[in-house]
Amino acid sequence: MGIGNHDGEGRTEEEALDTAYxxxxxxxxxxxxxxxxxxxxxxxxxxxxxxxxxxxxxTTLPTSDKLPQRGKLMGLARKTFRRRGQGAExxxxxxEGECPDSIRAGGDAACRSCGKAYYDHPQHGGFxxxxxxxxxxxVKL
Length: 141
Prior knowledge:
There is one protein chain. The protein is mainly alpha-helical and 141 residues long. The chain has 5 helices and 3 strands, in the order H-H-H-H-H-E-E-E. A 3-stranded mixed sheet has the order 1-3-2, with no helix packed on it. A hairpin with a 5-residue loop joins strand 2 and strand 3 (138-140). Helix 1 (13-29) packs parallel to helix 3 and helix 2 packs parallel to helix 4.
């Protein structure tokens, strides 16, 4: 099964992004890292939009240590962005390196320290898809 957004199935980019998020999230939550790694390794950056590539790299960042093909995709995406004349370093900022330990939770959950919704907490500086609670816990919503 491919997850690229130019797969000939006539999907819109939004549908392709939804499929990618759902597929990768399901594999990661099930601990099927080898399958997810193969899927990530099968992506051809030249056939994908910038938004699609950034979505894949963002979604897989928390488990990057378990996905060797992610590093390869990162390098290929960087080359693709440069060929397209896009600011590769700016686009990929925060998507390299190891993501801090985090938990997954719904954004409406209440912080035990202040009672505010997790959504109302600041984003992590290096990883904008994480919010940081009052006690320092990083949360992926």
